[in-house]
Amino acid sequence: MQGENFINSEREIKVSFGYQCNSPRGIPCSAANGREIWSGSEMPRTGSFSCLSGAALSANATLANTNICNGVIGGEILPSLDSPKSFRRVPSSPSLPRLDILSSSLQSSISNLSCSSPSPVDSPETDSFLLKPMSAPSRTDSFLNAMEVQMAGGAAGEDRVQAVCSEENGWLFCAIYDGFNGRDAADFLAGTLYETIIFYFTLLDRESKQNVPTANGCFEYFHDDGLVGNKAKPTSRIDGKSYASAESLMKKTADHKMEVSSDSFRHGVLDSLQRALSQAENDFLYMVEQEMEDRPDLVSIGSCVLVVFLHGNDMYTLNLGDSRAVLATYDDANDMGRTEKLKAIQLTDSHTVDNEVERTRLLHEHPDDSMPVVAGKVKGKLKVTRAFGVGYLKKKKMNDAVMGIIRVHNLISPPYISTEPSLNVHTISRSDHFVIIGSDGLFDFFSNDEAVKLVLSYISSNPYGDPAKFLLEQLVIKAAHSAGFSKEELMNIPAGRRRKYHDDVTVMVIILGTNHRTSKASTCV
């Protein structure tokens, strides 16, 4: 197939990892390099995914600064998490005392490794339980119930990609951090957000058993049991209610109480995702405040965030910015197996000024500012309306720390960039085939429908191939054609200069159901 072999040399591929689930009979998984990554007794399939494929292509020349948080992020945490060549088995509990770093604002005292101040995310009234000195909850006490996990991750330009799997417990965590103006924010997220999310997940049972409320006020999310295409999704709300324990979720019962418990548990998972992101944002901006005198560029550095978490038959998404999760699903009314019958459903919102809803919200939130959008960007700086970091558009103090063209000279009513994520939970059905998770660089060249059709055509003829890498190969072909180059000429342009023709691009493809096929992921620079 066209483009099959042009990004395949050891010189170009710097990171390559892969995962395929066991069969129902417990056949060992195989990584892309042929190594066995699971051995032992047979175990039942409890999840709704069969394999993962991913790839990332760099366009930006980025020398990541590793001195944030006194070098702990780049010098200790990321090396312990990154696995550039294959999924590797690691203990589910951190090998470093990272909870001292990640949950410092939840504690009454600060570890000497901490890079944040004890400023709680939520109000003292709702989080007083969390502020009490306490030991970190055990992973086996939570609904994740994993002693070990399979982990892989890497960087490409200003992007970071991360995947963590516990197949025996039926869950998969995937994240894309699309950094901008530098990679520090994406590195911070890669080094902290997964652990922060797990920390909040482990509190779900403890909070429910102690009847501790876990939300202050309300937040909105979407639960789409039945996909409705482009129609508006039903909105649900949560109002400071405690959640049912995970134990009750797992009990086999068909009565109404089970439905209530399941919905309450989903609320808890979504709330945990949101709280973890808010925690990470507070920690990052505090770190920026401490270090911006020596590194004023930190105030302009940020990242989009896309997290996809599969647990059982539920697929949760959290996003800030313009990365996307696109579900490929068949219309129940049609026969499966025909390309034209596969629908592309975008599960995430696009947080950009081009989105009329986002633009209207921005104008409504800044009535005293006649120019919140300048030249198609928020305050003339960013196209995205929601993002992690980018403190100079959120705090006057940080804007005042920079000079020249970076500084916003009329920052009238900050914050202008929101950290309120879009949240969604989708119950996976037999009609759902796969999910494409991608940074915006992918969708600069392909629509949702085009990406879905490319993946389907590829996996139909290459059952043991790498659909994510194939997407990148097709993107390079298209980018080269648009620029008047051959694909080889485009790939020979050094990173940095190549940004003129395409962005950093990160893609993951999750095959849903029980279709077993080999896959791998690659990061190319």
TrEMBL record:
It holds the Pfam family PP2C. One of its GO terms (molecular function) is protein serine/threonine phosphatase activity. Residues 111-123 have a biased composition (Low complexity). PROSITE patterns: PPM_2. Residues 143-512 form the PPM-type phosphatase domain. Residues 111-131 are annotated as: Disordered. This is PPM-type phosphatase domain-containing protein. It comes from Gossypium stocksii.
